[in-house]
Amino acid sequence: MEEQSKSALDRVFDWLDERVGIYGHTIAKAPKFAFRLDYWLGSFVLASFVLAVVTGALVALYYVPTDPYASTVYLISNVPLGALLFSIHTWAAYAMIFFILVHMTRNFIVGAYRKPREVMWMVGVILGGLALTEAYLGYSLPYNVISWTATTTGLNLFSYMPFGLDKLIKLMTTVPTNLPGVSSGVDPLVDRFFIFHWIVGGLIMVFIAFHLSIFEKHGGVTPPPSKEPGLELLEFHKEKLLNDPEWRLQPYTRSFGMILMTFFLVFGSVILIASLFPYNIAVTPSGVKYTMLPYNPALAAQTPPIPDWYFLFIYFFYKSVPPIYASTIFLVWILVTLLFPFIDQYVFRHKASHPVMRPSALGLGVGFIVTFIVNSIWAYETPGVDIGPIGVEVDGVIFVVSYIILFVILRKLQGPRNSHKGTTSLNIFKSSKTQIVVNRTLNLEQKIITRATSAVFLSLVSISIINAIEIFMALQYIALSTVFQFQFGTLLGFELIVIASVMWFLVFGGKR
User: Fold this and answer.
1) How far apart are CA 156 and CA 166, in angstroms?
2) Is 228 a residue whose pLDDT tops 50?
3) Which DSSP symbol is given to 417?
4) Where are the beta strands (DSSP E) in 124-269?
5) What is the rounded distance in angstroms from the CA atom of residue 224 to the CA atom of residue 233?
6) Which DSSP string do the residues of 332-367 spell out, in sequence order?
7) What's the pLDDT tens digit per position in 476-510?
8) What positions does the domain Cytochrome b/b6 N-terminal region profile occupy (predicted)?
9) Rounded to 5 degrees, what angle do the CA atoms 369, 370, 375 make?
């Protein structure tokens, strides 16, 4: 199959692959149309996870489960770069959950869950559940009044889970109060949650590897959504892969470059945000300070339990209906999401991947997205206050309205599938003349773009060099005061974003 001319790095990889099979038999090449950010959202998730693992391992060096709050304060106030690492770790976890939601939403819209990718979708849903569990466990570990109050409230609510799940949760979270080595006044469950935090992280690694192996098994990216029925795999479009420039398979260096670019972009963005908006940390002239109060039962009794943003939509149900019903709604929600590929195939009987050909699926999905947003905002604005049945009634109205509106609109958008039929020779002649004019215009535009690209590339390299010098200088001040660590983080985050931009030009020449 014809490909773009190979670079020296490609030839090195080919040489290695012939001898050790480093990637040639597992990693599929991506077509040109796939080099857009929406096709690489999974790489954003992976980058966030890697950053969270690295910073989490460093934070754990100073974390003491038997005295969690004091060790958190010590890390932030006394350890060089400790406050920055704590903030980066938290924002990286938030970024991972956010990118998982965006990734799943995008794949749902384009139908990337359809046959033969049903299992890959299910593994992705399990990954999402594990990520939420990991975030729940991590949220509790600082042992401040907000986090531990929300954690224990969540445990109490989950004790209403049906089908024996409540007994399983109780078994895993019951710890003897006289366990040796536990500081006075510290819930011994913290130590168990710390261990679970690492176990769940390991499970996430396993499922990510499984998810990626299935992804490569099916040839990598999905073809663009189509109104025609059929298996949605690249191997069934051999003619386009051979003849259409937009479908031509690209060298491995371009795929690796895209992965590295997304990693640098995520690392830089998260570090920059964590530096500009330190998580629960105040920066004063005298140093940095953890702003949250330690947990104690008396203060917790006066504190409305507010879970972190990714659990607000679940908390909403418990504020609307009795806990047993809320738990059932939550489990049904999970089950529908997990089995949605089969619901789409056997209940809705959609035959093609294009969104307009899946009106029932899109109607249900949009209803889920809207209720997720509405429920989260509603729960956040009413801390400690019961919402009542009106909450689930509003959800029901949203689902019905979304379904009806989307179904009607998408059915009307289902135009003829073979609009290219009936093309005359006159139209072909006109199209040829038009194409000549378009090609000349594109050549002129390409020259202008090439010159502009060179200027931008040189500017980015210059900025990167200057910023690297500033980072080196900032390191000298960190040793003098912990206040400067966030200035260092800001420079580092900006530098990584600039490097990501430079990599874009190096690998892609400023073109898609």
Assistant:
1) 10
2) yes
3) S
4) none
5) 10
6) HHHHHHHTHHHIIIIIS-----SGGG-HHHHHHHHH
7) 555 545 677 888 888 889 888 888 888 887 766 64
8) 12-224
9) 100
Scanning the structure block, which residue is given the tokens 């924002």?
91
**Cα dihedral 128, 123, 191, 282 sign:** negative
What is the rounded distance in angstroms from the CA atom of residue 47 to the CA atom of residue 263? 5
Tokens 């019903």 sit on residue: 325
What pTM did the predictor assign?
0.83
- The rounded distance, in Å, linking the Cα atoms of 365 and 379 is 21
Q: How far is CA 159 from the centre of its chain?
A: 29
Structure tokens at 121: 């979708």
Which residue type, as a one-letter code, is found at position 277?
F
Q: What angle do CA 95, 100, 104 make, to 5 degrees?
A: 150
What is the SS3 assignment for 283-321?
A: EECCEEEECCCECCHHHHHCCCCCCCHHHHHHHHHHHHC
Which is nearest to 194 in space by CA: 205, 206, 182, 207? 182
CB 125 within 8 A of CB 209: no
Q: Which two tokens stand for residue 313?
A: 């939509």
CB 267 within 8 A of CB 47: yes
